[in-house]
């Protein structure tokens, strides 16, 4: 995604996978939301290190991998590895909301 004003995106996979790279995107008003749905599939997200990330969702027999940690069967995965130079006020925020059934979410920071 190389949008100049990314505010929201919906991504759905059924029996497949997707890779979404938002490193070239600019967030509208410094915030954006990705709504993800996957059934028997996977999503691979690539995001910039300086962005803050909020992850919330429902993983049913699914997993979320983030910064070499795994959050399975949880409602929220906190962003514990904020390795950035931006102040909290300036940092763009990416909200990730998901519903997964037999699926995987991988979030990689670059």
User: Going across the major beta sheet, what is the strand order?
Assistant: 1-3-9-5-8
**First-last Cα distance:** 15 Å
Quote the beta fraction. Answer: over 45%
Overall residue-averaged pLDDT value: 83
Shape: globular
- Largest sheet descriptor: 5 strands, mixed
Low-pLDDT runs? 68-86
Q: Give the oligomer, counting copies of the same chain as homo and different chains as hetero.
A: single chain
Q: Tell me the total number of β-strands.
A: 10
Counted by DSSP, the helix tally is: 0
Category from helices, strands and their pairing? mainly beta
Q: What is the share of helical residues? A: under 10%
- Provide the gyration radius in Å: 13 Å
Order of helices and strands: EEEEEEEEEE
How does this model look, in words?
- The protein is an all-beta fold and 110 residues long.
- The protein is built from no helices and ten strands.
- The strands form two sheets. Strands 1-3-9-5-8 form a five-stranded mixed beta sheet, with no helix packed on it. Strands 2-4-10-6-7 form a five-stranded mixed beta sheet, with no helix packed on it.
What is the topological layout?
Elements: E1 8-14, E2 17-21, E3 31-39, E4 42-47, E5 52-60, E6 63-66, E7 69-71, E8 76-77, E9 93-101, E10 104-109
Parallel strand pairs: 1-3, 2-4, 3-9, 4-10, 5-9, 6-10
Antiparallel strand pairs: 5-8, 6-7
Give a quick summary of the entry.
This protein has 110 residues and is mainly β. The chain is built from no helices and ten strands. A hairpin with a 2-residue loop joins strand 6 and strand 7 (69-71).
């Amino acid at each position: 995604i190389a949008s100049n004003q990314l505010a929201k995106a919906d991504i759905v996979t059924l029996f497949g996978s997707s890779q979404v790279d938002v490193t070239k995107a600019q967030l509208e008003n410094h915030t954006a939301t990705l709504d993800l749905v996957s059934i028997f599939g996977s999503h691979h997200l690539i995001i910039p290190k300086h962005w803050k990330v909020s992850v919330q969702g429902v993983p049913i027999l699914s997993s979320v991998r983030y910064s070499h940690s795994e959050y399975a069967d949880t409602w929220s995965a906190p962003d514990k590895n904020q390795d950035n130079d931006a102040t909290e006020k300036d940092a763009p925020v990416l909200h990730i909301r998901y519903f997964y059934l037999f699926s995987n979410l991988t979030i990689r920071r670059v």
